[in-house]
Amino acid sequence: MGSHAGGAVRGDMLEPILPFQRSLPRDWWTVSRLGITGIVFLIVFGQPMLTLVRDWWSDSDAGYGLLLFPIALYLAWRRGFLRDSQGQPFLGLALLAGAVMLRCLSGLAAELFTMRWSMVVATAALLVFARGYRQVQHWWLPFVLWGLSIPLPAVIVSSLSFPLQLRASQLGAELLRARHVPVLLAGNIIHLPGRSLFVTEACSGLRSLTALLALGVLVGGLWLRRPWARVVLAGAAVPVAIVLNGLRIFLTGFLVYFVSPGLGEGLLHYTQGWVIFVVAFATLSGLAWALGGVERRWRLVA
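The structure corresponding to this sequence follows.
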């Protein structure tokens, strides 16, 4: 009797146990909590999730999300959970409340972009609640890739596409003049003798810019270690996309003028786009290799 009264009380005896929890093993209680959380998450964020998957599948401009999101899930699985991470319930609940409020307000305004981003914020909030902010930092690359897979609003796309169209048209016209091709540039229309090339929104380079930016973030997150090198690589996607898209317009005009007007459209035109994208990816990979060399020298000097 005395040994029981004065003995140490086990830690799990001090934890409050709910009446319905007593009949469940601890593993089943954890699974049930996760299941309830998942069901509530689907109820609140099911609509933006379904519309996002629908756009990935049906919209060619957003199709890269079908690649980015599985890569993000794979990277999160590979990185795993931090062993010493501790949940931060109050911070997690505050972030979750903000995400739900953003979901409701964007739903009332029918604004898909912020509605979908509220889903990302809510996922981060649940992770902070269970594992702490350090776990979100550990998974920064999957979260960034998931965010980049969300298509930009139509207003932003329209405002960015036209300046890129003009920039690509100017670069393509200058390259054609350098090859002694008579060119008259009027906005985003390149007039050639007997033929005019209209640089459409699809040829503005915005699609390749978004994909290259995501690739720059992915390559930088996997190959580089210093934040400044990753920022440089991601930022390099912008001039690379503009220059190579101008080169694509030049090649189209060159083939139309010297070979055949029919080469400005059809399968060959789309094939040029894929070839240019492969060249752009190779350019970013080469830049990442060079930045990796700078990082290694930096460590040796330091």
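The chain has two domains: 25-148, 154-295.
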